[in-house]
Amino acid sequence: MIDEGYIKYQCDWDQVSAIAEAEVVELNQWRTKLYQLGLIGQYDNGIGFGNLSVRLAKSSEFIISGTQTGGIANLTAQHYTKVTDYNWQQNYVTCQGLTKASSETLTHAAIYVAQPQVNAVVHVHHKKLWDELLDRFPTTNPDCAYGTPEMAQEIIRLCQQPLTQQQKIMIMSGHEEGILSFGKNLTEANEILLGHLAAI
Questions:
Q1: Domain spans of the chain?
Q2: pLDDT at 184
Q3: pLDDT at position 174, please?
Q4: 146: DSSP letter
Q5: How far apart are CA 113 and CA 89, in angstroms?
Q6: Is the dihedral of CA 106, 101, 146, 168 positive or negative?
Q7: pLDDT at 9
Q8: pLDDT at 18 (0 to 100)
């Protein structure tokens, strides 16, 4: 059963002016491509899915697509938010922008914490690819729900494994259709994902 895309973390949201367009140009280009491929979107029940983020240079902060933006074809800077602080153990996020951060923010944060060399994270949904990769590539415990401290802890556990660091892709067993890829930049994170998609 597909999980609902609502926020589970506690949010300290500073509704300041929108993120600068220049900060999201590459992020938005990739997001548009993923949307066109159906990897980010919205289910018939109105629940959006998929998000991506990029770490700010030499920082623990990152910019991520906002919550409930999956169904919007063309995003602008107002649909992104800057995550300035987070604690997955205490289940809170601090963000700045005109929209709240994605429900998957702590999952992205966990990857950045566990892998300092990673600067971009992509989360998409694709049933066929999920079925194909499930348990064949690093896969989370099915008891861990999306957007929870348990999922963040599981992501950190997987990220510490050499195979995960090498393959740069994880399957979210407890979040049907959910797939994560990551890399040193947005191009690497997306090309890893699209390479697997092209192979099925």
A1: 10-199
A2: 98
A3: 86
A4: T
A5: 12
A6: negative
A7: 84
A8: 83
Assigned token pair, 64:
């991520």
* DSSP codes joined into one string, the chain: -PPP----SEEEEE--SPPPGGGSHHHHHHHHHHHHTTSSEE-TTS-EE-EEEEEPTTSS-EEEEBTT-TT-SS--GGGEEEEEEEETTTTEEEEEESSPBPTTHHHHHHHHHH-TT--EEEEEE-HHHHHHHTTTS-B--TTPPTTSHHHHHHHHHHHTSHHHHHH-EEE-TTSTTEEEEEESSHHHHHHHHHHHHHH-
- Looking at residue 2, its pLDDT comes to 45
What number does CATH give the domain 10-199?
3.40.225.10
Measured in degrees and rounded to the nearest 5, phi and psi for residue 153 equal: -65, -40
Give, to the nearest 10 degrees, the angle between helix 149-159 and helix 105-114.
30
β partners of residue 12? 94
d(C-alpha 51, C-alpha 3), whole Å: 15
Q: How many residues does the chain have?
A: 200
**Weakly modelled stretches of the chain, pLDDT under 70:** 1-7
- SS3 label, residue 23: helix
Q: What is the CA radius of gyration of the chain?
A: 15
pTM across the whole model: 0.94
Q: Can you name the residues that pair with 51 across neighbouring β-strands?
A: 123
Alpha carbon distance 49, 125 (integer Å):
7
**Among residues 144, 66, 155, 78, which one has the least CA distance to residue 105?**
66
Output the pLDDT for position 7: 65
